[in-house]
Amino acid sequence: MAYVVQLESFQEFMIKERSQLSGGVLVGASTLTLVSTQGFAAGDVLYLGAPRKDGCERAVVATVDSETGISLTEPIQLLHSAFDAVTAVLGGTIQVERASDLLNKPPTSDAAWSVITLRDIDPDQISTYYRDPNGGETFWYRYAYTDGGDYLSEYSTPVPGSSFGNYCSLREIREEAGYLNAVNLPDTTVALARMNAQNEINGALKNVYGDKVPFAPVPELVKTLTIQLAAGLLLSITTGGVSQKGKDLTNTVRARLKTLQSGDETITDDDGGSISNGSVGFYPSDDQDRMFYVGQRF
What residue numbers bound the domain in which 28 lies? Predict the structure, then answer.
């Protein structure tokens, strides 16, 4: 079973040096003039343009020619303007590792982890993705940044694989929450809200929809509820719980889940027939704690 691993494209600890272009650069140029080349060296991986935004591209330093000039190993592919950011990183490649699940906990020994791929960073995206064709819920995943030589960053927090696909995209959640252009909000935070929303929806509807949960294919109503609940949770995470929109979204979805549990509303298939095949149950009741919490990590 395939599993898509989500990797942060850039983090502050991987930045080696920053500068700017002192003038515009045309497609095909193999030399750059910077405000300053201090801190840059041959072999450095550079990103021209603002990381995580359209127009950012990868380059490699061939030589540092002067206090303001550098040569590249290959010509650039995109147009860049004066004062565009130039960022050198310690590791321009992401090393993805996998380990077998141990009683729902990641292994603590480095010997239990194996490298499954080295993935180039997607410079114009908030996240870089790798599809593990043999992955799933029986594995844990972690990653680090490397230069292919001596440098290897600290590892990310291990995350468990999943045996089912996600009910909506991160972009749909960002749009609902009003964070579509919030490039400093990492996809991992959005994905955490999505995971908590999916877990809450699955827990609420398991008694009613039985082995249909987790849902595959995903009914349109489940997708809509996931987007709204995840956006509400995301707003709560990012505002410390004070967002009224976040409260309204989560309250609306949870009220809708109760109508689905009671049978007053039902989830239907493409032909309009109910997919319910379980007994009616209520989770959570008004006097029970919720199974999942905002900010909880797994």
Answer: 12-89
